[in-house]
Amino acid sequence: MTKHALITGVTGQDGAYLSQLLLNKGYEVYGLIARRGTDTQGRLRELGIADQVRLIDGDLIDLSSMIRALEKSKATEVYNLGAQSFVGTSWDQPLLTAEVTGTSVVKMLEAIRIANPEARFYQASTSEMFGQIQESIQSERTPFHPRSPYGVAKLYGHWITVNYRESFGLHASSGILFNHESPLRGTEFVTRKITLALARILHGQQTILELGNLDSKRDWGFAGDYVRAMWMMVQNDQPEDYVVATGQTWTVRTFVEMAATHAGFKLEWEGENENTQGIDRNTGKVIVKVNPAFYRPAEVDILIGDPSKANQKLGWKPEVDFERLVSMMMEADLRRVIS
Ligand code: NAP
Ligand code: F7E
């Protein structure tokens, strides 16, 4: 029998890769789509699957649209990926973030209880919940200390998922995913901001890349690997929570250096803190500059995840390493900027 999946956030980075994975496995894929813009399906088109994903109008703040989406799709698996997902914006729009990223999760869980309590549920939780880290390597047992309105909202989503599993026996799992990137990453996130800017600078369409905290460290993986972990969690008989990470951490500065080298720049740093500049020795021009406007009111300095539970219980491990991820993203943006 064909399996039916409903994905919220289907137009986002992970929604696109997860749709592709499920279509390849023979699923009928339905996506909840909040029609706010005119061209929202760019990522699905880029993967060549826009005409295979069945879109259902709905919004995460509207419980009735979620119930209707569950009824229309006849979904037996629900992947809740929709969110206001940009940490920076969460300080400017904390209430919207609380609603879209936080309390919408209980709406989806209620929709499942009402429309189909047998449906399996995946919640897109995040390493941002660890925030000011309480252990040097973070696992499912590490206490949380979120540092942004986004992290706080996600923590609500995480615990309400755990609570509905414990209260009502729903097959609900929460994936605590560390940063994952790809050529389809939104341009506001630092990795894609870097690769796109470097490609544009190389082709004379931009002069400088302005960044905030270069010393911040992240455990960066590839989104294609991480959506596979989501699917594996949902297939497991036992609903549980899992950390998904690579177990390695890198600074923003290292990401810039590797991407620049890959693009053919000869980058050298001068100055410190807010006076830091990256100069291309091929041309003598300053191409990277720190702008404190991109600093955050409260920073998450470092994240490193321990994915051993996902490895042992699901058999999951990442296939794309950091170097390959950087080159994949840099190459994609070089191709896009030329074409
Ligand atoms: P993304 O690219 O920003 O996608 C977010 C999606 O949510 C978009 O499709 C967006 O639709 C949709 N959305 C926003 N507000 C909505 C609303 N009110 N109603 C319905 N849909 C709405 O995020 P992502 O990187 O794919 O991440 C997927 C999920 O994983 C998110 O929940 C994110 O918070 C979480 N997460 C991400 C990472 C990561 O490193 N990528 C790590 C841990 C957790 P529009 O395109 O129309 O705005
Ligand atoms: O920032 C620093 C910034 O915005 C990474 C989301 O997917 O992952 C993501 O959240 C780091 C931070 O991602 C700039 O201060 C420096 O320390 O790429 P980001 P994020 O905040 O880690 C988690 C796991 C999620 O769940 C989120 O949804 O880079 N940084 N300079 C900068 N960041 C940005 N965006 N722009 C800069 O110019």
From TrEMBL:
InterPro entries: GDP_Man_deHydtase, NAD(P)-bd_dom, NAD(P)-bd_dom_sf. Residues 6-329 form the NAD(P)-binding domain. Keywords: Lyase, NADP. It catalyses: GDP-alpha-D-mannose = GDP-4-dehydro-alpha-D-rhamnose + H2O. GO terms for biological process: 'de novo' GDP-L-fucose biosynthetic process. Pfam families: GDP_Man_Dehyd. It is an enzyme of class 4 (lyase). Its EC number is 4.2.1.47. Its cofactor is NADP(+). GO terms for molecular function: GDP-mannose 4,6-dehydratase activity; NADP+ binding. Catalyzes the conversion of GDP-D-mannose to GDP-4-dehydro-6-deoxy-D-mannose. Belongs to the NAD(P)-dependent epimerase/dehydratase family. GDP-mannose 4,6-dehydratase subfamily. NCBIfam families: gmd (TIGR01472). This is GDP-mannose 4,6-dehydratase.
